[in-house]
Amino acid sequence: MTLPSEAGRVVLVTGGATGIGAEIVAEFAGAGADVVVADLAEPGADAAKAEYVRVDITRDDDLRGLVEATVDRHSRIDALVNCAAMYKTLGGKRALEEIGLDDWDRVMRVNTRGTWQAMKAVLPAMSEHGGHIVNISSTTARNGSPGFAHYVASKAAVEGLTRAAARELGPRKITVNAVAPGLVDDEATRVLNDAAYVAAASGRRAIPRSMYPSDLVGAVRFLGGPGAGFITGQVLVVDGGGLFT
Ligand SMILES: NC(=O)c1ccc[n+]([C@@H]2O[C@H](COP(=O)([O-])OP(=O)(O)OC[C@H]3O[C@@H](n4cnc5c(N)ncnc54)[C@H](O)[C@@H]3O)[C@@H](O)[C@H]2O)c1
């Protein structure tokens, strides 16, 4: 499907400085959107042209500043992509009884609570004309990948939050959906998994190859745009047919 131009649209991408988020930024910016990146990390030198605001998504005051600055500059926010999460920084696989309380709380605070906080923050800017929110979940929420119980739980909660928000925000013409990527062959994945694990995931797919960020950015852009205006509360699995839902 050829998606329409993003010219004139304003898109916020949390976690857009690195990894998958940076590819999502490049996808929207390449199609003409004004993209604002909200991240704790700074974008790399080769990042797509976009505005950058240093934001911790667990801090309401950071998010308020981000939304105010974006609305001051562009007068609207059309889409929010919630990509920021603790993934690369999980610190390795651990049995569930070995995950500490602090680690559990930190992952839930960033991945789940932060996603909810970012959604809340954009509502004033979307309530007048509507908008599109896309949360990044993970297929781990469905297949229960061992070694990351806190991360898996945080992403399952993001999917529940997506449905709750879709019900509440539909009357305000705001759609809320999630994209659940499979294991992406990227730097973050290679920090956490050995090559054999990544190869085995590829082999289980109906399309038996590695998955790259470029495989999922089209789905994010579609759900973040007006062409998906009557789709809400859904989780779109993008994993080359590893899971059929
Ligand atoms: N890589 C994969 O295989 C995979 C698979 C499924 C889902 N995902 C999800 O895709 C998204 C991106 O993953 P990635 O592989 O690029 O991971 P990553 O860990 O490389 O990137 C996460 C980004 O979020 C930012 N971030 C973390 N905490 C933040 C905070 N408190 N405030 C603002 N920004 C914060 C980081 O600085 C980083 O830029 C995440 O939501 C991840 O859970 C990844």
Description of the structure:
The protein is built from eight helices and seven strands. It has 245 residues and is an alpha/beta fold. 44% of the residues are buried. It binds nicotinamide-adenine-dinucleotide.
Descriptive keywords:
245 residues; alpha/beta; Rossmann fold; 41% helix; globular; binds nicotinamide-adenine-dinucleotide
Q: What is the name of the CATH superfamily?
A: NAD(P)-binding Rossmann-like Domain
Overall structural domain count: 1
Order of strands across the widest beta sheet?
3-2-1-4-5-6-7
Taking the sheet with the most strands, its summary is: 7 strands, parallel
Class by helix and strand content? alpha/beta
Q: Helical stretch count?
A: 8
Tell me the CATH architecture.
Answer: 3-Layer(aba) Sandwich
Heteromolecules bound = nicotinamide-adenine-dinucleotide
The percent range for helix content is 40-55%
Q: What is the β-strand count?
A: 7
Q: In one word, what is the shape? A: globular
Proportion of residues in extended strands: 15-25%
Poorly predicted runs are none
Q: What's the average pLDDT?
A: 97
Order of helices and strands: EHEEHEHEHHEHHHE
Query: Could you tell me how far the N terminus lies from the C terminus, measured between alpha carbons in angstroms?
Result: 22 Å
CATH topology: Rossmann fold
Query: What is the CA-atom radius of gyration, in angstroms?
Result: 17 Å
* CATH top level class name: Alpha Beta
